[in-house]
Amino acid sequence: MLTKYHFSMASLLLITRKCNIEIVSKEEKYKLLEKKLQEEVGEFLEDKNLEELADVLEIAVGLANALGYMLGC
User: Which domain of life is it from (predicted)?
Assistant: First the structure.
């Protein structure tokens, strides 16, 4: 059986994209998560869609984990 894969040019570009990684302290991680939460809540309030709400939830779980609660989503 032959399997065909279809890739768009955009997905191929994303695969080859580089990113920067920075290791931060627990305190800095928490501050960055708080800042990101404000950004994502603003986007959710503007767009009111499930994708933005999922982003808010993801950040909230990260904050809960940073406070010692082990939540998984």
Answer: Bacteria
Instruction: Please name the amino acid found at residue 23.
Output: I
Question: Up-side HSE of residue 64: CA atoms within 13 Å toward CB?
Answer: 11
Q: What is the pLDDT along the chain (73 residues), one digit of tens a residue?
A: 555 555 565 565 556 667 788 999 999 999 999 999 999 999 999 999 999 999 999 999 999 999 999 865 5
What are the respective helix, strand and coil percentages of the chain, to the nearest 5?
Answer: 65, 0, 35
The pTM of the whole model exceeds 0.70: no
